[in-house]
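User: Is it possible to get a 3D structure for a protein together with its bound compound? The compound here is zinc ion. I've pasted both below.
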Amino acid sequence: MKAVRFFGHKDVRVVNDIERPVPKGDEVLLKIGGAGVCHSDLHIIDEGTVVGTVFTLGHENAGWIEEIGENVEGYKKGDAVLVYGPWGCGHCKPCQQSKENYCDHQSEQAYGGGLGLDGGMADYMLVPSSRLLVPIYDLDPVIAAPLTDAALTPYSAIKRSLPKLMADEYVVVIGVGGLGHVALQILREISGAEIIACDVTEDKLAFAKELGAAYVINSKDADAAEQIQKITGIKKAKVVLDFVGATSTIDLGTKVVSLDGDLTIVGLGGGHYQYSMNGLPFGVSMTNPYWGSRTELMEVVGLARQKKIHIEIEKHKLDEANEVYDRMRQGKIKGRAVLIP
Ligand code: NAD
Ligand code: ZN
Ligand code: ZN
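Assistant: Yes, that's possible. Here is the predicted structure of the complex:
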């Protein structure tokens, strides 16, 4: 079968000689409908966040069940499912609570399919346990694939701040890419706060307005923080969601977040932050959430089935993977690119 393989630093190749796996025990073989292209792949490919192994990329996966191992119950051939991405041990307390993104054993194992183990940018993907599947019913797996990360990650980050996102508050979203464009819609649908969106190009800012941002600011502007403070007034933004995570965006976040606010850094942009007592308003919670839980993914599926969130999708062939990664490096993808076998 065909697969998009990571061979090491900046070396991604589409190959045709991968053997189609056969599921055993509780394993499931999925016929891939779509595999989303996440910016985290670029951190792996360009910066070496996962080293020393060759594997198939793609950690945002959806498809139809092709074959099940002899112990799998509750699923049959043809069922449309998402693959929950952060694969934990399945036994520890966080895993039992469905929060495999915070599995006790994360430091000892690969992060999941497409993140050290074979992922979904291929004709078929082997999922190690039926526990990691979430049914999508009438949703199309091609369109639904990015729900597993581009929607789940912002959903989980927003949910932890939800009590602070009341109608008299402001929320700042930095980065209107794959994750950020879904974050805007989730905020619009489940929170009351007024949304201020930041990106670095006019088309992304116009896109943000379409998705529910009341205000848009170009974060390249030297006075971006002052522009935001002009909108929020003295109270500042109760929640800042940073989907870039560069030093400049973290710095912007610290300037606009309010007393007792949340500064949530989702982006893995390699930024640095030096704590100082006067550098951050009192009471601020600074967090770096990772992905979301399996039950939260079920809630995200609910939002999509109710048509409350819509993922803007560009469809591409597996053979176009390298071109797509290049376009992502240049910030040229609107919404999410999905590779379709
Ligand atoms: P993307 O490439 O689709 O979007 C990034 C967006 O940020 C683009 O619109 C780009 O124009 C914008 N941007 C770049 N620099 C900016 C700046 N200085 N100010 C404002 N906007 C700027 O990326 P994505 O797939 O949405 O991923 C975003 C980040 O989140 C990546 O670093 C990715 O690795 C990370 N991520 C983290 C998790 C997690 O669990 N913590 C999960 C998925 C992705
Ligand atoms: Zn991702
Ligand atoms: Zn675990």
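The radius of gyration is 20 Å. The chain has a mean pLDDT of 97.
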